[in-house]
Target: Phosphomevalonate kinase
Amino acid sequence: MATTAISSPGKVLLAGGYLVLDPAYSGVVVSTSARFYTVVQDLDEATTVARAKADRPIEIRVRSPQFVNAAYTYLVSFDVDGVHVEQVADSASASFTKNKFVHLALQRTIALAIEARGAGTLQNRLGYGLDITIVGDNDFYSQRAQLTSRNLPPTLASLSQLPPFNHTGVRLPEVHKTGLGSSAALITSLVSSLLVHLGVVARDSFDNDAEGGTASASEGRRLAHNLAQYVHCLAQGKVGSGFDVSAAVFGSQLYTRFDPVVLGSLMKDESTNEALLPVISPSNTAWNYRVEPFKLPPLTRLMLADVDAGSDTPSLVGKVLKWRKEAATAANAHWDALDKVNHALSETLLKLSEMHARDATAYAKAVKYLSTLQSVQHLDQWLAINPNIPPATQEMIDIFAEAHRLSEDVRAKMREMGKLSGVPIEPPEQTELLDACMSGAGVIGGGVPGAGGYDAIWLLVLDPTNCPPQELPSSRIEGVWASWKGLDVSPLSASESVAKGVRLETVDQVNGLRQLLDAPW
Ligand SMILES: Nc1ncnc2c1ncn2[C@@H]1O[C@H](COP(=O)(O)OP(=O)(O)OP(=O)(O)O)[C@@H](O)[C@H]1O
Ligand SMILES: C[C@@](O)(CCOP(=O)(O)O)CC(=O)O
Model:
């Protein structure tokens, strides 16, 4: 009974919101330690024998055990037109709920697998069916209600007390998402696990960590990317920038979008019979997205908080793009200026990693020193030459100061864009919160991720070694969030993903996963 478990990370767009929709610009994307997991299992022998005896069709059962009423059953049939994946009522209930994302992922991946391996081989591989379990780390869904019901304050310590893959207590459409890109991570893990399980890509396709961007990525990883982008676009009914799927596949990166033309013919009709492989194949040069390596510097920690006010991202995007069209000259000048700062920020952060590689001791000293400054708000304090600081450490302090300045410049330009377009990209309530976080020791940068609004904030804080926990900059930030009155701020436990992008998992090494798999359907 073969099992395939695959995970893929969520995302945070630190810089490049809106701009990344245009291939002339790029986005700085960090993938998160919060991941989606898909486990595909062959049926056990007893079920296979029973289904064979009853001459049952191929049946794929999918469940999302964190939700009420989230089990879906599909029948798979083959004819001259290709493959049909049709949802049927679950045996336990007369009715069924639909999940377009899951349905299209199954349908399109099996269709592509037939093209790659032939209908006969695939039919054999599917046998009488598959069982699929999908779960997302707690950070993808707001845990406020769970914490309240346990009488726990919204802190990182409280979050660590919740069971892994905690039941949300609601149906999928009612869940409060946190903006980490649940649908992109879900589609990527589901599509990738099926590609591996059905033998379309090798199990070791996701071994190399794709740190060098697309150039060093395996063909299997690139195929999974193209297919996940296609399915995600189809399910969302539009071709977005795709940075979320790209982060789920390749990990943290500087992302430049692909031309939507590549998906043109396939986007017209959800149940198209058109051959997928010629379009989806990594050898199709129309896939012109660019993934350049990016990672956060050592001894820093990404902190994320969900802000319970919420914004309607599509309407923010609509208004900003309308402004860009109407005030093209001013808007384009603003986008160029913002893009320059976004690039400078990512380069400066990468330079810190280089500095660490060159001299880890001096780097650690710089981090320690900066963490002890009472306030890093004033650049002069960051830059003040202290005769006791060796020049190598001072040089690194200067680069941290530059990252701080650039991050503040990104914020200023995002606020300006908001003002010009009449959109609350960094609304005053968020400015107040971010300023309070930035004004204390050890914060390199911060802002509103992605499209901005009232949804969330990110901060990059120093994380020195050998420091008492209560003196860590992250502890101070937690204090600011816990006592904040203007907005309801709830921390997420995710930081940057150590592994790059989509990866193969061993079920027993993922805390809490075995228990969910062993639970009855
Ligand atoms: N655990 C899950 N199991 C099955 N499907 C899921 C799961 N989580 C999310 N989905 C699918 O993803 C859809 C949500 O996609 P949508 O594009 O609205 O969110 P999103 O933009 O990715 O949200 P966010 O970035 O806040 O996580 C759901 O309607 C559902 O079809
Ligand atoms: C505004 C936009 O550039 C970013 C939206 O990001 P987020 O979902 O708010 O993280 C849209 C997109 O890139 O799809």
Notes: The longest helix spans residues 328-358.
